[in-house]
Every structure is written in C-alpha cells, then in structure tokens.
What does this fold into?
Amino acid sequence: MTVPAGHHGGEVVVRGLESAEECHAAADLYAEIWASPSGESPFAGEALVALADSGNYVVGAFSDGDLVGTAAGWFGVVLAGTRFLHSHIAGVRPGLQGRGVGQTLKQHQRDWARGAGLAEVRWTFDPLIRRNAWLNLTRLGAVGVRYVEDFYGVLDDEINAGEPTDRMVVHWPVDGVATKQPHAHDGPGAYPVLDTDRDGGPVLLDADPPDADLAVWLPEDVEALRRADLALARRWRAAQRAVLVPAFGRGYRAVAVTPDGWLVL
It folds into this structure.
C-alpha cells in the first residue's frame, strides 16, 4: 500500500517485512516508542521473524526508505467460528505521531484481513488516551465492545508507567465504510455521566444513568498528566472504570469520540 505522506515530504509505503534485519529494526522501533527502563523491546525481533514466516501480519511503514511505523498481529478465531486478525502492536516513530501514519497502518491491516478472508480486525487500546480513542472509534469506525481491567497486568514501559493496563477491546469489520467522519454526536446530545471540574479532575455525575446514549469525558492528554500529576491520573482511571465497567456490562458499546472530547456510548 502506498499513500501520500502529507507532512512527511514523501510517500508512505506499507509492506510486509522481508528479512530478519527488517524485523529486528521493527523491534528496535518498538523499544524506542515504548521506552522501557531495561531498553528491551515489547516485541522481540525473533518473534516477529517467526510470525512473518508463518504467514501472520508483520509490516512496516516506510518513508523515503526509512522505517517510520510498524505493526504486527496474528490470526484469531472465536468459538462461533468468526476468523479475525488480532492486531497486537502498532507504533509510529516519535515525532511523527498524529500525521496519518497510524491510520495508514490500520487501513493496510483492514485490506490485508479482507484479502485473507477474515471477517474483522480486533485490537485493544487505553480508552483514557483521547487521541487513540478518536482515531479508533471516530476516524476508523471501529466499535468498542468490552472494557477489561488490567488487561496485560502491570508493565514497566514509559507509556504505561507501571499503572494498571485497563483496555477497551474494539472490533472493526473489514466490509463497509473505510473511515467514519466526525459527526453530530456531542456531549449535550447524550446523557453525561462523567465530566471534569475546574481543576481538571473527574466528576462522576450519575452512577445509575437511564437507558440512553451516554457521554463520558476524556482528559485531553492523560500521558502528560501521568508525568505531571500521577495521583490525578489515577483518579481518572478509577472514575472511568466506575462508569465503563457497568455500562459495558449493561450492553453498551463505544461508538465515537466527539471533537471536544466526549466518549459516546
């Protein structure tokens, strides 16, 4: 897949990694992005080699010959027989995030899964990170179907900062509209259950909301908040758990993030 690069100065080409050297370069990029204290990559190069050799999904995004992003996943199947691509890890080189490389990787995943005869792509993300929620739900049109507390256990990399790894599980059908443009959902259009106060802290508005579309406020940059005020970031995690765990238990699904920062259920 080749797409215009916009801010990159050249085209971004997404293709399968073709050698052990490229797989280890991808592992090094993951180590740079996640920045664990040990310097170890969250995905070893030799594991990427084995995944690629066994026909799974291991790709890189290249701009002017340089590796600027990478993604890896494998085939999955549920008891009902639905076959899907589990997208385990995807990352973009620091300094190039927010410039369309991540979206290009996801679109390539979808095309690859469709070509492999799969029904959908599935992955997890931290629903406190607003920009990721916006990309996954609003831009791509994936649907959040589960909220899992501490999905991976405690990790020591810079992004997760030793905090509980709560994750939202999303499903993205390979057929249908490729992307979803920002739409008319907004905070007042749904019943607000979690908001923010003047000091940037969470405010739980209703622990037992009615059966209606729900709006959950997302902090603007929880990663920066973790570095500046870890206690406040932990309050946001606890507040989001208090809202999303029962909401998903009641059958709600996450469908969008509004331009001003409301997660819509």
About this structure: DSSP finds six helices and 13 strands in the chain. Helices lie at 20-34, 45-53, 101-115, 130-139, 222-228, 230-249.
